[in-house]
Amino acid sequence: MTRLQKMVLKPKEQLVTRLFLSPKLKQNLTVLSYSTYDLVAAMKDLSESDPFVSLGKSQEESHNLEWLKDSESESLLDHLLAQVRLSDWNNKVKKAVKLLIYHLADDGYLRTDLAEIAQGAEFSIDELQKAKEFLQTLDPCGIGAKDLNECLLIQAEQKKDFDQVALQILLADDLEMLADPQKWGLTQFSEKQLENALACIQTLDPAPASEYTTGTNTQYLLPDLIFKVEDQRLTIETFQAQIPELLFDEQTFQELKGQAKERQYFTEQKQRYLELKNAIEQRQQTILRLGKYVGEYQHDFLITLQREKLKPLGLKETAKALDLAPSTISRAIKDKYIQCQNKIFSLKMLFPRQVAQDLSQERIEYDLQELVKAENSLEPLSDQQLVAIFAKHGVELSRRVIAKYRKKLGIPNSYHRKRS
């Protein structure tokens, strides 16, 4: 063995801190992440493998939220269509966006050429291009991109204070250069700038649709929570019409256990029942707590269903408010739906991204529309003037962001809005 090999194989001590979850906690977290379909399937599996367990009728629970003041796993297709249904876009735009959604690949990319989609469709290429811009505003961020660079660019433009060098590289479609350090000397940027840009781009998600199932077998959306509106007050119900009650035959269990010489089998069967039953109860309690908190926070939206009423809400702040881990909140909203005023949509929709200060993208789009409606048609506001108006109200936006939202809303630039 050479001296170099000995150096390479030299043992090295390292102190590592690891978090180990107990089997009970693992099961609780797994059950929490289940959709209604997955939960019922797990209950059926237990009833078929455990001779003492059976499934009974479901029970509904209602919880009054008068304290609110007056003022199968989810597929990518389900998630996107639910957002389109809830949007305030006109019917033609909705139809065009839906058409593009049906052409998405399983990973959420739109690789089919718009000219090809336009053939035999009722939309022109320009209309489909506009629909694509609408599509790319939906969650998950990065959806509908033609390639990796566009996917990352969509996400980068949504992030506040994103590294400017990284943004320039994405705008120039020059990821290949960034991936090859040997080419760094040919650019205008320093090695340190490129290292920072690379690190920043690596925080983006190249596969934003990865957490969604690709199958199309989900035929019906079952809400986990139901919000009812009456006199500007909300009532929340945990929807359990599809969740059967888990029953245990205690009498037969005791009789057979008393007659048996080996009792470990019986103990294990009851333990499996108790663990799943407790996990289900914990799941329902967590979802209900989350529903109450979100119901209070997004009260104005749930009363009106106007998207501009949505307030930015993050997993970390929700976790802090409920004294839970952010990963627990993430599991609690995964594959969960809510029903409100006869509409069903993903619980994730109540967690919009923050664009600036305490404003969501929906609110900024609404304010932008109102400013354009109120402008002098003889001297319409330029994008830079709109930036200045938002800044006066403490909202810092770039001209690029204003232009992006304006195009998404179908608002022409100031030159084309001017009336002679």
Automatic annotation (TrEMBL):
InterPro entries linked to this entry: RNA_pol_sigma_54 (IPR000394), RNA_pol_sigma_54_core-bd (IPR007046), RNA_pol_sigma_54_DNA-bd (IPR007634), RpoN_core-bd_sf (IPR038709)
Top-level taxonomic group: Bacteria
Residue ranges annotated for the RNA polymerase sigma factor 54 DNA-binding domain, each copy included: 264-419
PROSITE patterns membership: SIGMA54_3
Keyword set includes Repeat: no
Keyword tRNA processing: no
Coiled-coil stretches noted in the UniProt entry, renumbered to this chain: none
Keyword line: DNA-binding, DNA-directed RNA polymerase, Nucleotidyltransferase, Sigma factor, Transcription, Transcription regulation, Transferase
Protein family: Belongs to the sigma-54 factor family.
Protein name from the UniProt record: RNA polymerase factor sigma-54
Gene symbol of the encoding locus: rpoN
